[in-house]
Amino acid sequence: MTAETNFEPAHVNVRIKISALWTSMLFVFAYVDLFSLYRPDFRADVEAGEIGGFTINQTFLLGTTAYVVIPSLMVFCVLILRPRVNRIANVALSSIYALTIVASAIGEWNYYLLGSAIEAALLAAIVYYALTWPKELHHSQPTAL
After folding, report:
1. What separation in angstroms does the CA of 7 have from each of 4, 10, 121, 143?
2. CA gap 80, 69 in Å, rounded
3. How many other C-beta atoms are found inside a 10 Å radius of the C-beta of residue 101?
4. What is the DSSP letter of 9?
5. Is the dihedral of CA 23, 29, 31, 34 positive or negative?
6. For the whole model, what pTM was predicted?
7. How far is Cα 98 from Cα 63, in angstroms, rounded to an integer?
8. What DSSP element (H or E) covers 135?
9. Contact 119/29 with Cβ under 8 angstroms?
């Protein structure tokens, strides 16, 4: 007689799934950018004060910080926002970020293309989970005795 192992089914709340997807996307995002520092052409552009045709200045760094802060805040906001606002924010922001990631990958090296494809897939998963978010059940009020 063999013992059969049955794993307990795990229900993961959609908020946790979406938050984890934002977190994963940010890790890939950060590592792809960090790996660029190993490229001589990228380092030369940075030394010349430019990245991707943009001058590195306070405005550029402020914009870049805002670009990274938004998905960073979504990791937490997904856990606290109301479902309707959550759905709209996740679909809108994921779509915008996917477009910017695809646009920035044009003409890049293979590692960057791979990272960008993974980021876009994670963002697509966020859109999927946001759009298929289960409706909350309204429990009836307990009746008084």
Report:
1. 10, 9, 28, 38
2. 17
3. 21
4. P
5. negative
6. 0.86
7. 17
8. none
9. yes
What are the structure tokens assigned to 1, written together? Answer: 């007689």
Ordered per-residue pLDDT tens for the chain, 145 residues: 566 777 777 889 999 999 999 999 999 999 999 999 999 999 999 999 999 899 999 999 999 999 999 999 999 999 999 999 999 999 999 999 999 999 999 999 999 999 999 999 999 999 999 999 988 665 555 544 4
Residue 74, Cβ density class (10 Å: 0-12 exposed, 13-18 middle, ≥19 buried):
buried
State both tokens at 122: 């994670």
CB 25 within 8 A of CB 71: yes
Place of tokens 């876009």: 120
Residue that has been written with the tokens 């005795």 in this structure = 145
With left for phi above 0 and alpha for psi between -120 and 50, is residue 9 left, alpha or beta? beta
Q: Pick from 63, 64, 67, 81: which is nearest to 19 by CA?
A: 81
For residue 55, the cross-strand partners are 50
The pair phi, psi for residue 55, each rounded to 5°, is -75, 130
- Integer Cα distance of 71 and 28 in angstroms: 12
